[in-house]
Amino acid sequence: MDALSTTLTADSRPRFLLRDLPVYGDRCLAPMDGLTDWPFRSLCRAFGSALSYTSFVSAIDILAGRDKAFEALRFSPDERPVIAQLFDDDEDRLLDAALRVQALRPDVIDVNMGCSARCVSGRGAGAGLLQDPVKIGRIIARLTSALGVPVTAKIRLGWDDTARNYLVVARAIEENGGALLAVHGRTRAQGYTGEADWEAIAQVKAHAGIPVLGNGDIRTPEQALRRLADSGCDGIMIGRAALGNPWIFQGRDRSHVPLAEVAPVIEDHLGRMLAFHGADRGLLLFRKHLARYLDLIDLDPDQRAACLTETQLAALAARLRGAGLDIGFDGITEARNFGQTTMVAA
Predict the structure, then answer these.
(1) By C-alpha distance, which of 340, 327, 315, 342 is closest to 268?
(2) Cβ atoms of residues 326 and 260 within 8 Å
(3) Any idea which residues carry the catalytic annotation?
(4) Tens digit of pLDDT for each residue in 196-212?
């Protein structure tokens, strides 16, 4: 954390209550498969993300005890409030998995009802659940009656433009005990194409008696403020625009962040990746983040490619210094155990 001079800037009063859990701040990192691991979540939390959603985890994998699932659920205490996100199409498996995950002590358990990937929604999980609001109501009711932590859900507007049943789904979730609703303003059929429908998100908020988070196409701090004001939502989620840009949670435009501030954040982020994933895997997985950090740096294609394919820390540091970033990766070795020693055990 020494590399960062940032602190949470939320008001001393909570923005809203998630059941009886106070949430400070109005923007948070959206869960993204393969991206919102502990290193990235904890970094964004340090910059002001109000909630830490894990990437979604299959109930089947949890019940099978697969290491990958429990790795995704590991978190550090300074991330709280932490929301563990699960997905499945089977009510019994979801309940059994949620009970097991609750033992890991997250603050909230969320059911993913928004994933549009064919391998998930095509079998009735994720956004596939939107086709059956009655089943959604049963799932939320069973979870809320069995769990001691709040239960929430993340949805889309519907299966496609002929079935935009988001108000019915939202009511099913709220009436069966859901404590918060996050809404991505697209249908399953849209995937990530087209534009997010914030008027529909505003309709959900207008009808809901529980907190609502809006999600979709927020790329700048100005858009975040405008969407919050226009929709009336309690908060907003930021996904792809946060990659390489944790400053968005401070309300700062990435184009105005000087290289002198970018360098220590790259070093901090990579240190967390190595701590959590190990040296070789951590550096490999960091490439997708590094690509975004480098987006606004004036590099020729060969320089950029060399940075993104380098396999040695010292050589990478030298290449980044050549790009104008004052990076030596000093202290990375000492930081490698940081993630392991501060994790809440899974």
Answers:
(1) 327
(2) yes
(3) 115
(4) 999 999 999 999 999 99
